[in-house]
Amino acid sequence: MFATVDVALFRINPDVGTGQLELLLWRRKADSDTFPNCFALPGGYVFENTDEQLQDTVSRLIINKVGVEPAHIEQVCTVGNAKRDPRGWSMTVLHLALVPFSRSALVSDEQCWVPARHYANSTAQEQNKGDKNQQNNDHALPFDHNQLVTLAVERLSSKALYTSQPLYLAEPTCSLPELQRIYEELLQNKLHKKAFRDRLLATNLLVDTGKRIQGRGSPTVLYHIQQTGITTFERVMQGHKKD
Amino acid sequence: MFATVDVALFRINPDVGTGQLELLLWRRKADSDTFPNCFALPGGYVFENTDEQLQDTVSRLIINKVGVEPAHIEQVCTVGNAKRDPRGWSMTVLHLALVPFSRSALVSDEQCWVPARHYANSTAQEQNKGDKNQQNNDHALPFDHNQLVTLAVERLSSKALYTSQPLYLAEPTCSLPELQRIYEELLQNKLHKKAFRDRLLATNLLVDTGKRIQGRGSPTVLYHIQQTGITTFERVMQGHKKD
Questions:
Q1: Does the beta carbon of B53 lie under 8 angstroms from any beta carbon of chain A?
Q2: What pLDDT digit, counting tens, does each position of B156-202 carry?
Q3: Do A31 and A125 sit in the same domain of this protein?
Q4: For labeling, which of A111, B42, B187, B218 is most exposed (least CB within 10 Å)?
Q5: Domain total of chain A
C-alpha cells in the first residue's frame, strides 16, 4: 500500500477567448520508473518519516512541483485501487487548487499550462477504451490522471453554481464583468447580468475601491475581493434565459 | 503506512423529540490491540490482497460491521497523520451513510445507536484538550473518531442547506411535515412551511401517492420519494423568519 497526493491547479487565462480554464502539468523525471518524461498532475508520495500530516505532503508538493502559492486549496476526493498505478495498490488524495492569472507564472521549464477541458470528460473515457485513433490522444495523461482532472473540473463547476469559490481565480481587484466571464467559463453557460450581480454582491465579499474604468457605456466599478472564505449563495446561478 | 475506511451511519429517530439525529457505533473486539471493547465508528483496514478498489473495503464494512443497507453512501474526506492511530502513520477515508429509521434495526448486541451531536462539535475538542472532568467525557471515542463524527455532521448540515440529500433519511412514503422535521433537525433551525414545500416540490423527487392522512386540519398528502440522486435547490433553505 502506498499513498500519494495529487494537485490539480487551475487558472483562468484571460488572453484565450473570453477566459479559458487552464491546468498546470509537470514533467515527470527522466529517471522515473513509471512514465518517465511524461506530463502529469503534480503529485508525490506521502513520506511517513517527515510528513506529520497529509497537509505537509500537500505543502511540500506546492513548493517543489507547483512553485506558485495557490489562493485556495481543498480536498476533492480519494481514489484507491489495485490498478491505477503499475507499482501496486495505491491511494491518492486529490486536491484542487486555484490561483489568479497574475500570480501563475511558470517557475520551471518542466511545467506547462494546458486547456483543462481537453484533459477531462470524454477524453479520459476515450483513453480508457484504448481508442488510439482519436485525435484527442495527445491529451492522455499517465495513471488515472485524466479521471482525476475530470473529477476536479466537475467539483469546480458544481461549486460555481452555488458558491463564491471561483473568486479565488480572480485578480484581487476586478470588475463584475470580469467575474461573470470566470463563472461563465466554469459553468459553460451564459449568465444573466443582473442576476449574477445580485448573487455576487449579496456575499459581501466585494468592496468598492472607488475606482472606475471608462468603457463604451457607463463606467465599470472596480472591486477589491475579500478572501475570507467561501460563501453559499441564497440562489444558485442559472443559465441565461432566452428572450 | 496503513489505510482504513470509517463509516458514519446516520438515521433520524422520530421517537425522540421531534426527530433526533442518531449515529451507529460498534464495539471493538475484546482482543483488539487498540481500544479493546470500546465503542467506535465502524471501520477497518483496506485489504490490498482482496479489495480491488476502495469501494470494496466500504462494502465489506457495511456487511460485516454495519449490517444494514444504507440508502446513500458518500465520501466526506480523508484524514491522515502520524498521531491519530497508536499503531503508526495512518490515513482514513471517512464516509457518511444514511438510512431510513424503519430499515435501521440493530443486527448485533455489539452495536448501538447514539445521539450524534453528543459525539460531535465541542465534545471532541474538549476531549482533545484532555479535560477529564467534563460531564461529556462519556462521549469520548477512540482515535480521532469524535473529530470524524464532527466532520460528517457538518457535511450533513451543509448539504441540507442546498440539496435533497436528507431525503435518504426519510421513509419511502412520507409527508411534507415529516420531511420538514428531518431538515429542521439537520439544520438545527425552524423552517418556513411554504418556503420548505416550494423547494422540495421543485425537485420533482416527490410523487403524490393519492393517499391522505386526516389530522386536525386539512388532510396531509403522502408522497413517494424517488431515490434518483441528489438535487441542488434553486434557493437554499433558510432559518424561519420571525414575525
A1: yes
A2: 999 999 999 999 999 999 999 999 999 999 999 999 999 999 999 99
A3: yes
A4: B218
A5: 2
Is the domain of A77 the same as that of A131? yes
pLDDT in tens, B142-159: 999 999 999 999 999 999
Which CATH number characterizes residue B176's domain? 1.10.10.10
| A162 closest CB neighbour out of B3, B48, B162 | B162
pLDDT, one tens digit per residue, over A53-91 is 999 999 999 999 999 999 999 999 999 999 999 999 999
Does B59 lie at the interface with A, CB-CB under 8 angstroms? no
User: Which of B52, B80, B162 lies nearest to residue A81, judging by beta carbons?
Assistant: B52
Whether B175 is in a domain gets the answer yes
| Residues B174 and B134 reside in one and the same domain | no
List CB contacts (< 8 A) between A81 and chain B. Answer: 52-54
The last residue of one of the domains, among A161, A187, A207, is: A161
Q: Is B94 exposed, middle or buried (0-12, 13-18, 19+ CB in 10 A)?
A: buried
Residues of chain A contacting residue B187, judged by C-beta atoms under 8 Å apart: none
CATH no. for residue B132? Answer: 3.90.79.10
Looking at residue A124, what is its pLDDT?
47
Q: Say yes or no: A103 and A19 in one domain.
A: yes
Could you report the per-residue pLDDT of B25-76, keeping only the tens digit for each? 999 999 999 999 999 999 999 999 999 999 999 999 999 999 999 999 999 9
Domain boundary among B153, B180, B207: B153
User: Could you tell me the CA-to-CA distances from B68 to B59, B109, B169 in Å, in that order?
Assistant: 11, 14, 13
For chain B, state the CA radius of gyration.
19
Which residue in B35, B59, B48 sits closest to B145, CA to CA?
Answer: B35
What ipTM is given for this predicted complex?
0.91
Put simply, the answer to whether A238 touches B234 (Cβ < 8 Å) is yes
Give Cα separations from B36 to B40, B146, B149 (angstroms). Answer: 10, 17, 20
- State which residues form the domain around A183: 163-225
Asked if A236 reaches chain B (Cβ–Cβ under 8 Å), the answer is: yes
**Of the partner residues A51, A78, A235, the one whose CB lies closest to the CB of residue B75:** A78
